[in-house]
Design a protein that fits this description.
With 440 residues, the chain is mainly alpha-helical. The longest helix is centred in the middle third of the chain and has 35 residues. It has one domain. It is 78% helix and 0% strand. The mean pLDDT is 81. The chain contains 23 helices and no strands.
Length: 440
């Protein structure tokens, strides 16, 4: 008796959910279910042959080589001392505002996000750099911890963003367009964070005392000049992609080379640290590629079942406004973010969700930014809230409850950002639409 592909696809999704709930990592569960499903549908030899060919053909693509470059930029930037310089510059300019150190932390994390691309790394670094300064100045621990956990999420949007690269690879959209599309929403998020801090501290000054130190304008520009490393990398990424002078991979290579030179010229950076950065880059890249392999097998299995197309047709024919369907999808991502990491959410849902988005007529670049923004929210919401756990891990004296309470208002700002991006999609799309690239 011939197996029904549709029922097989549903059984595969159920098996994947069971394995994930049982504690297996999403990627490995996807690989096991995908291979098992292909064997069931096509037989052992075709399934194994297809799996071997697929994993090589998809991950040998030139566009995927951007990942190790972006990872290397972030690791080298930390050892080159760019973090401290970014915070010092932001502090010089914003320190006298209400909650000035927290505002400085927001803009410093945004700057570091432009050379890091990793939310967890950004949160860990600034827990060490800015939290001690805020606590010493008399800041409420909730605000000090919350702003670092929330600020770290900006690395998911502001290029170079590894999660945007993976989204582009999974759905086969322009990586360059996605990276540019994330820039303005990332800056918007930082501005909303900073505005909220100023307003909240004006109402309750005891949360974050303003600095009384008057810094001369020349000193401010001197501090800004010392942060030239981050500024130059941001310029390379944005200008290189926007003008079409460089592909995303070339941008990553040039940026990594520039940060490597900064690290080598920094006397406080040991050669051992630089070697460790390269080794860690290789390890992280291998881990990400292994995850991508497993999920590609699962995606191909679902493709043979026809399940994504059937679901897209069914949802597209529902007699409800398409905005309602979009909001339901985004709400689902918010719930998933409480239990899964960002990459796991993308890999688990995109094979089914992406055809639905296309059938509804939404722009896939714009939707990718919304999804990543929801992933950011998942990084700071309980019970997982990975960035919150990282802040607590680096500073055990600040309880996890305090971190989650401190980050709550920033989640509201994130939801406001999502609402703005839904109401005005051009905020996301105008930059990639005007860039000098033929891919979008």
């Amino acid at each position: 008796m011939t197996a029904d592909p549709f029922l097989t696809g549903l059984a595969g999704l159920l098996a994947l959910a069971v394995l994930v709930v049982a504690g297996m990592r999403v990627a490995w569960a996807a690989g096991v279910v995908g291979l098992g499903g292909l064997v069931f549908l096509r037989g052992w030899d075709p399934a194994v042959g297809l799996t071997g060919l697929l994993t090589y053909a998809e991950t040998a693509r030139y566009s995927l080589s951007v990942l190790p470059m972006f990872i290397l930029i972030g690791l080298l930037a930390f050892h080159a001392g760019l973090t401290q310089k970014a915070f010092a510059a932001a502090r010089a300019w914003a320190g006298r505002l209400p909650g000035g150190l927290a505002v400085a932390t927001v803009f410093a994390t945004a700057g570091f996000a432009a050379v890091s691309g990793a939310s967890t790394a950004t949160a860990a670094v600034f827990t060490r750099v800015s939290v001690p300064e805020m606590l010493k100045a008399g800041y409420d621990p909730r605000l000090a911890a919350g702003v670092v956990a929330a600020g770290g999420t900006l690395a998911s949007l502001i290029p170079p963003s590894a999660i945007l690269v993976l989204y582009g690879i999974i759905v086969e959209e322009s990586v360059g367009a996605l990276l540019l599309a994330g820039f303005v929403p990332g800056v918007l998020s930082a501005i909303l964070y900073a505005g909220f801090i100023v307003l909240r501290v004006k109402i309750s000054p005891e949360l974050g005392p303003a600095s009384t130190e008057a810094i001369p304008i020349l000193e401010k520009f001197k501090a800004l000049g010392q942060a030239w490393g981050i500024i130059s990398v941001i310029g390379i990424v944005i200008v290189g992609l926007y003008t079409g002078w460089m592909t995303p991979t070339e941008v990553g290579g040039v940026g990594a080379a520039l940060v490597l030179m900064m690290a080598l010229s920094n006397r406080s950076t040991h050669k051992k640290q630089i070697v460790e950065a390269f080794v860690d880059t290789a390890r992280l890249t291998a881990m990400v590629l292994a995850i991508v392999w497993c999920v590609l097998v699962f995606v191909r299995f679902l493709g043979f079942t026809g399940l994504p197309g059937m679901l897209a047709d069914w949802i597209g024919n529902l007699e409800v406004p398409r905005l309602v369907i979009l909001l339901a999808i985004l709400a689902t991502y918010m719930i998933l973010g409480m239990f899964l990491d960002g990459l796991g959410m993308l890999l688990l849902t995109m094979p089914v969700v992406y055809p639905v988005i296309l059938s509804l007529g939404y722009d896939p670049i714009w939707f990718g930014i919304l999804v990543v923004k929801m992933i950011e929210i998942g990084l700071v919401t309980p019970p997982i809230g990975l960035n919150c756990f990282i802040v607590n891990g680096v500073r055990p004296d600040i309880s996890l409850e305090t971190v989650f309470r401190g980050v709550g208002p920033f989640v509201i700002m994130d939801l406001l950002t999502v609402a703005i991006l839904i109401a005005w999609p051009e905020i996301v799309l105008w930059l990639p639409r005007t860039m000098n690239m033929g891919g979008y």
